[in-house]
Design goal:
315 residues; 85% helix
Length: 315
């Protein structure tokens, strides 16, 4: 009995460590830059040097913990890295769609699969021993732990694509103002990216990368093509194709941007109307399964109880 309790304690400790690793590695808030900027402005306003020093030490300690966990994930992923360049390129492309451009992202992703699979196997062993279904618990726990990072990556891709699509009409309106004021397309993208850094950080990051590519020597058409291919967003792909055609045929870029923004805004409105039309259908299932039975019990319950206590059923 003591050995069994000791084993359970070890399994719980391993699961806790894996959960802490995942929470620190993947659940990184998207408002990190906003928090840093607010903390820096607060430090400038406050004259306390000790508070600023404590914040810097805390930030450095958190960064050291994250770096340590990333090193652990990278070391765990070393024997399980994809051998072919095709698989690595596919995984890197999916990470790019999700907005993750870190060079060690592939190793961290593979290491997370290994660690979560080990944690899932431990949880499955405990559940299997409790339910007398050892093989089923091991297999299910391992599969869930292995596919959990893939599910997270798909959700991250969907979230990033939605953020880019929703932010693009506002960005195009600002680009129209900048282009009509006399700025080039590259300078307009840089200015719009800096203005939308807090409101739409994903689009601001992509515009910044496109601007950096033009500064290192790529042509504007190549950087715009890379913008559409890198993100995988249909809206950005359409924007890049439109800007390339407008530059090639010498048409007005401001007019083209205004038309593109209007088309994206109409498309976003149609998507919202589609979701609103689907809401009634989605609400019918909980309405029939949960709300109608509860309402029927509340309304007909006293009548049924009175009928059961009547002479018709007591005699």
């Amino acid at each position: 009995m003591n050995d069994q309790m000791f084993f359970y304690v070890c399994v719980i400790g391993a699961i806790t460590a894996v959960g802490f690793f995942v929470s620190r590695l993947f659940v990184t808030g998207s408002d990190t830059k906003l928090r840093q900027r607010l903390s820096e402005s607060g430090a400038k306003l406050s004259d306390s040097a000790e508070q600023e020093k404590a914040e810097n030490e805390e930030r450095s300690a958190a960064g050291a913990v994250v770096q340590g966990l990333q090193k652990i994930g990278t070391a765990a992923a070393e024997p399980f890295m994809p051998s072919s360049r095709e698989k690595q390129s596919n995984l890197r492309k999916q990470l790019g769609y999700a907005g993750v451009y870190s060079p060690s992202a592939i190793r961290v992703m593979t290491g997370a699969k290994v660690l979560l699979m080990a944690g899932g196997v431990g949880i499955g062993y405990g559940v299997g021993v409790y339910l007398n279904q050892l093989m089923m618990g091991l297999s299910l726990g391992g599969l869930i732990g292995y596919f959990a990072p893939r599910v997270w990556l798909k959700q991250k891709i969907k979230k990033n694509q939605t953020a880019l699509q929703l932010a693009l009409p506002d960005a195009l309106d600002l680009m129209v103002v900048c282009v009509e004021a006399g700025l080039t397309v590259d300078d307009a993208m840089q200015r719009v990216g800096s203005e939308l850094m807090l409101a739409h950080p994903a689009l601001s990051r992509e515009f910044g990368i496109a601007r950096m590519e033009t500064r290192v020597g790529l042509s504007r058409s190549e950087s715009l093509k890379n913008l559409g291919v890198r993100t995988g967003s249909p809206a950005l792909q359409g924007l890049s194709a439109m800007l390339i055609q407008a530059e090639r045929f010498g048409t007005s870029i401001a007019s083209a941007l205004r038309i593109q923004a209007e088309a994206l805004r109409v498309k976003r409105q149609h998507a919202a109307e589609e979701l609103a039309a689907k809401a009634s259908v989605k609400m019918s299932f909980p309405l029939v399964l949960f709300i109608f039975p509860a309402t029927f019990i509340v309304l007909a319950g006293p009548t049924v109880i009175g009928l059961m206590k009547s002479a018709l059923f007591t005699e």
